[in-house]
C-alpha cells in the first residue's frame, strides 16, 4: 500500500472531520502509516514532525512503550464492561487519582471532549433543578470560546465558522468579554486588562445571576481562538464572582490540562478550584478516546436521592472503558516517575529562547504558557494558514495555523534537535509564505 492508494481509498470512503472535502482536490491528505516519538511517517517513507501533538492529545510521543504496554496488559484482562451497574479496577483507580490531583470528588466519564462539556452543562442545569432553583437555566461563556461541536457544546462555543450554520438548533448563551491579551488597549498590561474584563463580567452576572446556571471557560488559554492567552488574575476574579452570585464555574481543561499550561491543571495558576472540571485529550497520552467531568461532593450530594429522575441518568456505551482508563493510568504514572511538570519548565524556556528568531519576520505577540507556544503573523493573505500548512508539510513539519496564528504544541518528549528543526523549518516556511 503506497501513499496514492491509501489517499484515493480514503477520499472514496472517509468523511474527514473539520474539512471541506472538496478542498482536498487542492490540498492532498497525508496518509500516515506509523508514528515514533515526535515523528509521523507516511507510506512512502516521508516523515513529519508532529508539532501539534495530533490535535493536542499526544503528550509522550507516538508509540510510547509505557502506555502501549499498559493497554496490552489490560487487553488480556478486560476490554470493556458497561459502567452502569458494574465497575472495574482501572476506572476506580483512575477516579481516585484524578480526585487526588484536582481536589474534586466523583468522576463522571464520557468519550471525547465535547461529551465532557455536554455532561458538565447538563449536570449544572440539573443541580439547580434538584435544589429547587429552577430559574437557573442559562449559560455564559467567553467571546471566541471553543467547547466542542455537539449541539450543547456548540451552544456555548463562539466561533462563527463552526456555529452559525447550526444557530437555530442551539441553546442560547451570552458571551463575556475575552481577557485574551491581544485584545487589550495599547499600553494596557495583561493584568489590568484581565481585571477590566472581570469587572465587565461581574456587571453582567450581577444583573442576570437569577437565570444563570454556569459560566464555562477555558482557563488561561483559549486554544481554538488562536492560542489567546490571558492573565491568571482573571481566574481568581471569576471564582470570586461565581461564588458571590451562585453561578457554577465550569473549567474546560480539555486542551490545557495535564501539564499543557505549565502546571498539571491551569486552574492551579489562578489558585482556584472550579465546580466542574472537564478533562480529555491528553488524559490518555493520545492513545484512546476518554473524557471525564469532576465535580464537588456538594454537587454530587444534590443528585444522591431516592427519586431516580433526580439522579444523573446521562450515559454513553463506552463510558469508563477499561483500555482507555489503563492508558490514562499509564500517562499519570509517567508524570509521577519522570517529574514531567518540572522538566517541562526547562523545555519551555529553551524553546521560547529558540523562537526569538521568529521575531525577525513579520510577527507579533510571541507568547507561551507552559508547553503552548504561539505568535501571530502580520499578513493580509486570507489563504495564509492553508499555504503555511502546505509549505510546512512539504518540509516535513506538521503545523496547523489557526487564522494568522502559528503555534507549537509538541509532545513533551521533544528534544533539542527536534526543537531546532521545528523552529528553523518554521522560519524558512514563513520566509517563503509571507
Ligand atoms: C477547550 C476545548 N474544549 C472542548 C474541545 C472538544 O473536544 P473534542 O474535539 O475531543 O470533542 C476542545 C477541542 O479542541 C477544546 O479545545
What is the gist of this entry?
This protein is of the alpha/beta class and 434 residues long. 38% of the residues lie in helices and 16% in strands.
Give an overview of the whole structure.
The protein is α/β, with parallel strands linked by helices. The chain has 14 helices and 16 strands. Strand 13 and strand 14 form a beta hairpin. Helix 12 (about 340-355) packs parallel to helix 14 (about 415-434). Pyridoxal-5'-phosphate binds near residues 117 and 147. Pyridoxal-5'-phosphate (PLP) binds near residues 117, 146 and 218.
Key features of this structure:
binds pyridoxal-5'-phosphate, 38% helix, alpha/beta, seven-stranded mixed sheet, 434 residues, globular, 14 helices, four-stranded mixed sheet, 16 strands
The tally of helices reads 14
- Structural class by helix and strand composition: alpha/beta
Radius of gyration (Å)? 22 Å
Ligand identities = pyridoxal-5'-phosphate
- DSSP strand content: 15-25%
Largest sheet geometry? 7 strands, mixed
Low-confidence stretches: none
Q: How far apart lie the N and C ends?
A: 36 Å
State the helical fraction.
Answer: 25-40%
Average predicted local confidence, pLDDT:
97
Strand order, sheet with most strands: 4-12-11-10-7-5-6
In total, the number of strands is 16
Shape: globular
Amino acid at each position: 500500500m503506497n501513499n496514492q492508494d491509501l489517499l484515493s481509498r480514503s477520499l472514496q470512503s472517509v468523511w474527514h472531520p473539520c474539512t471541506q472535502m472538496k478542498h482536498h482536490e487542492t490540498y492532498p491528505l497525508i496518509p500516515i502509516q506509523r508514528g515514533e516519538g515526535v515523528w509521523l511517517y507516511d507510506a512512502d517513507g516521508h516523515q513529519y514532525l508532529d508539532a501539534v501533538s495530533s490535535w493536542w492529545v499526544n503528550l509522550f510521543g507516538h508509540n510510547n512503550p509505557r502506555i502501549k504496554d499498559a493497554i496490552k496488559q489490560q487487553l488480556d484482562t478486560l476490554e470493556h464492561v458497561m459502567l452502569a451497574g458494574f465497575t472495574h479496577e482501572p476506572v476506580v483507580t483512575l477516579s481516585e487519582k484524578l480526585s487526588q490531583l484536582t481536589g474534586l470528588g466523583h468522576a463522571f466519564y464520557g468519550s471525547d471532549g465535547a461529551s465532557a462539556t455536554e455532561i458538565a452543562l447538563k449536570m449544572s442545569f440539573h443541580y439547580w433543578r434538584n435544589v429547587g432553583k429552577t430559574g437557573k437555566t442559562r449559560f455564559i461563556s467567553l467571546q471566541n470560546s471553543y467547547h466542542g461541536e455537539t449541539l450543547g457544546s456548540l451552544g456555548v462555543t463562539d466561533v462563527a465558522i463552526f456555529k452559525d450554520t447550526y444557530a437555530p438548533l442551539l441553546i442560547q448563551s451570552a458571551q463575556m468579554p475575552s481577557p485574551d491579551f491581544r485584545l487589550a488597549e495599547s499600553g494596557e498590561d495583561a493584568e489590568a486588562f484581565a481585571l477590566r474584563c472581570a469587572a465587565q463580567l461581574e456587571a453582567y452576572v450581577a444583573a442576570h445571576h437569577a437565570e444563570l446556571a454556569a459560566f464555562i471557560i477555558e482557563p488561561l488559554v483559549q486554544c481554538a481562538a488562536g492560542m489567546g492567552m490571558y492573565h491568571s488574575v482573571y481566574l481568581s476574579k471569576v471564582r470570586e464572582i461565581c461564588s458571590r452570585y451562585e453561578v457554577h464555574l465550569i473549567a474546560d481543561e480539555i486542551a490545557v490540562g495535564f501539564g499543557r499550561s505549565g502546571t498539571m491543571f491551569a486552574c492551579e495558576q489562578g489558585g482556584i478550584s472550579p465546580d466542574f472540571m472537564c478533562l480529555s485529550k491528553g488524559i490518555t497520552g493520545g492513545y484512546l478516546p476518554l473524557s471525564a467531568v469532576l465535580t464537588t461532593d456538594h454537587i454530587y450530594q444534590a443528585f444522591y436521592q431516592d427519586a431516580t429522575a433526580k439522579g444523573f441518568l446521562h450515559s454513553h456505551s463506552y463510558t469508563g472503558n477499561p483500555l482507555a482508563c489503563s492508558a490514562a493510568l499509564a500517562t499519570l504514572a509517567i508524570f509521577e516517575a519522570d517529574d514531567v511538570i518540572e522538566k517541562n519548565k526547562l523545555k519551555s524556556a529553551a524553546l521560547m529562547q529558540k523562537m526569538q528568531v521568529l521575531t525577525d519576520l513579520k510577527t507579533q505577540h510571541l507568547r507561551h504558557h507552559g508547553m503552548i507556544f504561539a505568535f501571530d503573523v502580520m499578513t493580509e493573505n486570507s489563504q495564509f494558514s492553508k499555504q503555511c500548512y502546505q509549505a510546512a508539510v512539504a518540509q516535513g513539519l506538521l503545523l496547523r495555523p489557526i487564522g494568522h496564528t502559528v503555534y507549537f504544541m509538541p509532545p513533551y518528549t521533544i528534544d533539542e534537535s527536534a526543537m531546532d528543526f521545528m523552529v528553523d523549518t518554521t522560519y524558512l516556511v514563513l520566509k517563503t509564505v509571507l
